Amino acid sequence: MIALSRLISRFAELFGGDPDFVVHAPGRVNLIGEHTDYNDGFVLPVALQFGCTLLGRRREDRVVRAYSETFTEMAEFDAARPARDAELRWIDYLQAVAHILNQVGSASQGMDILVAGDVPIGAGLSSSAALEVGACLAFEASSGISLTPIDRAMAAQRAEREFVGVQCGIMDQFVSCNAQAGHALLLDTRTLGFQHVPIRLSGVSIVIGDTRKSRGLVDSEYNFRRSQCEEAVRLIAEQHQGVTALRDVTRDMLDYLGIQLDPVSARRARHVVTENLRVQQAAEALSSGDARTLGRLMTESHASLRDDYQVSCRELDVMVETALSVEGVYGSRMTGAGFGGCTVSLVDTQAVDDFQQTVGSIYASATGLAPAFYTCEASAGAQRLL
Ligand code: GLA
To answer: 259 lies in a domain?
Structure first.
């Protein structure tokens, strides 16, 4: 987290005086359970030590005056009438949250606000979910309302879907709101029932590798995958009553579906069905400290995303394959929506330096891109700090 004392001085320089409140919301890395959340399935993300911190002070009018440390820019809008231009900017995430809060009857109040974040942007580590959840907490603080963490996550997800225009699932906002330090979060996205799963990996680290490949196709391909899944469900439901989402498809049904469905729908369905099974096994392996099993499941997840769901790309594949060739690596996979962004690997803590050097140099010479690596520190969910 960015040093608070520096941000408090920055707030005084920008707006004069002290903030009334400080809130923080983390980004996330998903250990396993990819492209399952919009299929009513299971996910196992972890909140990161990186997040978005917002320092604010209530205003008596409806004006939101916000400064972004990242974009070194001041912007403002009317909290009663949020409206975005065609080109998406950082301020639109705050407007998106105001828009949803106004709709759910928790009218958002004006405020002066400083926004600072350290989640790498565009890397698939949910910098936008962190900003949305942080903005929600900030509006709650300035308006004197208080949402439950689950309602906050749902408001932030609606902000992304209805105002920003990305048809995301609930995973990113949910873990940002509900995570516990030292734990991953096993979420059933159908019921929103969840469990904090202790990370008992002694001597083993979770290492994130940023390919630095920008995720150009991600939004259109993401929405396309969603519609392919819906189409697969429609076809399956003609034969199997009670199937309303790929979550309801069992492994036994898969062989038969291979004959019934077109090959693409069958592959998409197979990914989601097998991934849901892997998530539940992974949660058990994580809490019992079984790095070998967890690593194997992660590597299988990557193969399934690459071959059946087809959301990987050359850079992600090179990084995963290189990671798997390093001594002390239990498993590796792409994480997040795909088409670029990050990998997540399970690595003996003693081998992490070697891992970063070896993967870094082989990857750089294969792709011409300079990767970045971070060791994940499982952090707490969003909260008001002051
Ligand atoms: C993005 C979305 C999530 C989820 C992942 C893929 O991060 O925001 O809801 O669908 O992609 O698992």
So the answer is: no
When pLDDT is cut at 50, 70 and 90, the band that residue 219 belongs to is confident
Task: Assign residue 26 the CATH number of its domain.
Answer: 3.30.230.10
Number of domains the chain is built from: 1
Domain span at 61: 4-197+379-384
Query: Which tens digits make up the pLDDT trace of 18-68?
Result: 999 999 999 999 999 999 999 999 999 999 999 999 999 999 999 999 999
pLDDT tens-digit map of 271-300: 999 999 999 999 999 999 999 999 999 999
Instruction: Please name the residue whose Cα sits nearest to atom 11 of ligand 1.
Output: 337
Compute φ and ψ for 197, nearest 5 degrees.
-105, 115
- CA–centroid distance, residue 264 to ligand 1 (Å): 20
- What is the tens place of the pLDDT at every residue in 303-340? 999 999 999 999 999 999 999 999 999 999 999 999 99
Q: Does the residue 368 lie in any domain?
A: no
pLDDT higher than 90, residue 106: no
The C-alpha atoms of residue 381 and residue 184 are separated, in whole angstroms, by 11
Whether 103 is in a domain gets the answer yes
The residues annotated as belonging to the active site are 172
Residue from 40, 93, 171, 230 whose mutation best tests the ligand 1 pocket (most atoms within 8 A of CB) = 171
93 Cα: distance to centroid of ligand 1 (angstroms)? 17
Ligand 1 centroid – CA 168 distance (Å): 6
Distance CA 366, CA 279 (A): 31
